[in-house]
Amino acid sequence: MSAETAPTAGEYIGHHLTHWQNKPMAGVIDFSVFNIDSMIWSVVLGLVGSLLLWKAARSVTSGVPGRFQAAIELLVEMVDNQAKGIVHNAESRKLVAPLALTVFVWIFLLNSMDFLPVDLFHKIFEWTGVDHSIHYFRVVPTADLSTTLGMSTSVLLICVFYNIKIKGIGGWFHELTTAPFGAHPILWPFNFVFQMIEFVAKTVSHGMRLFGNMYAGELIFMLIALMGGTAAMSLTGVLLPIGHVIAGSIWAIFHIMIVALQAFIFMMLTLVYIGQAHDAH
To answer: Has residue 3 got a pLDDT over 50?
Structure first.
């Protein structure tokens, strides 16, 4: 975007919804195109989350816990109780419970990037005069469908692993061909197709739910930012700047709940799907 001419509302939103990519999109599906911004923030915040949990584990004490330790203990206890109620295999929970905790912390941090000012990094790039392609820089990885579908696909692979581990190859194949309609050989193809549709539907909905909520939240922050831009250009507007501040503050406070809730829902669905992989149909 040029600093000399003010963009229209559509150009402003379009600019902020464009990813920093390794090469321009060719207008067709191209699996060699990567959203560099989403990858950077996913890795960085994954490391931050790991360091926070590592610090909590290193600083744990049997005495009176500090606020940080108490918060982490409450979170660990909550996740562990949920895992016990859904995944009934104690051996599996040794991996599944820490996995669920990691998922919650990681997605919470990724979602929290939405609280950064909409134009922060774009202004930094503009002031420093860096390459124009980096001006397309989104900071909310969970508002990127490729990120959330990547996460849900990882959950699918874990479910496949536990299906095979718990039931064996033969047992799982028997389940794929005999449930839900019955074990008659004529029904095997229909059962198998239904099972595949179920796996795909769960994976897509798992990723789309998180993406849709965070994408919508990002859009609302942009619309509020546009209200502020309109207020700045207004000669007589007094109520508009006040409305901008009030609307931004209310949405930010409400968005705190959305950020935590979406992380919790993704974690719970991860536990539910892995728990279903342990159950025989």
So the answer is: no
